[in-house]
Amino acid sequence: MRRVSVGIIGCGLMGMHHVVALKSLREAGILDIDFRAVSDVDEPKMMRFARAYHFAKSYTDCFRMLDDGDVEVVFVCTPTKYHKEHVLGAVNAGKPVLCETPLAVSLADAKEMLNFAERKHVKAQIGLVLRFHPTLNYIADVISSGRLGEVLSAVLRSDQVFPVGGFYVSDWRGDPSLSGGGVLLERSIHDMDILRWLLGVPTYVYATCTHYTEKNVERLVGMTLEFKCGALASVVSVWHKMPLRLSERSLTIYCEEGFVQLNLGTMGELAYLQSKGEAEKLNVDAIFIGFLKRIGLKASPLLVRYGTGENFYLEDYAFLRAVVEDREVYPDFRHGVEAQELVEAAYISSNNNVRVSLPLKENRFRETLHF
Ligand SMILES: NC(=O)c1ccc[n+]([C@@H]2O[C@H](COP(=O)([O-])OP(=O)(O)OC[C@H]3O[C@@H](n4cnc5c(N)ncnc54)[C@H](O)[C@@H]3O)[C@@H](O)[C@H]2O)c1
Does the CB atom of residue 39 touch ligand 1 within 6 A? Predict the structure, then answer.
């Protein structure tokens, strides 16, 4: 495959996740990646990052990096508030972009980003990394095969340590003007995407949020969602303050003739499936190897399965391969907007104590953020 040269905006946690992923793809001889340029407003941090991963160039002004003809594709890994300007800049320069999730601080901004990328015909992938989770893909296939019968309900519990400090070195998630919200937007955007992926088109959302009084960001969300297929989902999403419990997701899907349980997090990964016979513990290692094959990768000691399955290299591989082979990216900004629509509906529901129908009409979008 031909060489592809990469630029990264934002040398923080996600910038590092991506560069480590890209490094493992390069070292495994899977992709020929040129670490071309990085950008960050924090110059000393950027210089440390550039040196550690041998990037050829560095820019404190990312728009200068976007003008650099040697940079072919761009990863946007900045705090959520800045995604819009960075993505619009990359798209305007005609550079394929992978934007970290969530797309933006509001649905209106996310839609503007999608429309611009579509109008300019620039490939735009959203960092919904769980779309590359091998076991979730396995479960999605089982459900869509109809083997478990009609889906009746999904129950999703999602929790994470309040991500300011500790493992999450920076504190911008405590400031809703930079993050756009709290646990609902920052974490449960992934949960909303999982539900859309597994259950299809949503019709109604009812949600209640409570906030950190001192921070004005929601730390607890309870939601009920209804889907066109008739299924109901309930979600509880929490930001807690247990530093040694980083995060966990537990998903249960009840179907007419089957049952799936998936746990990702503190206990590693555990998955059970029950249909006609006894409950069967799924072999998640075998599922991982099967998934590698499915997306065209050979198993290699450099491609390890992480505990929670958030294999950023699978996401990055899919993105760069789509660029090199000039194919459509997946998941694209449309998936990002669809997940964000559920988040927006939940904010509207919680703020007004109403059940909100979907799709959201443009005049129902929050004109200002909910805080
Ligand atoms: N996909 C996921 O599972 C996942 C997980 C964590 C974070 N995220 C998202 O990734 C994004 C980044 O989060 P993070 O944890 O890496 O944050 P971070 O604070 O660790 O890193 C952000 C970096 O961006 C830099 N920055 C800020 N403004 C900038 C600007 N205008 N130009 C260039 N650089 C700038 C900061 O100096 C910092 O180094 C956020 O949108 C977050 O929501 C996604």
Answer: yes
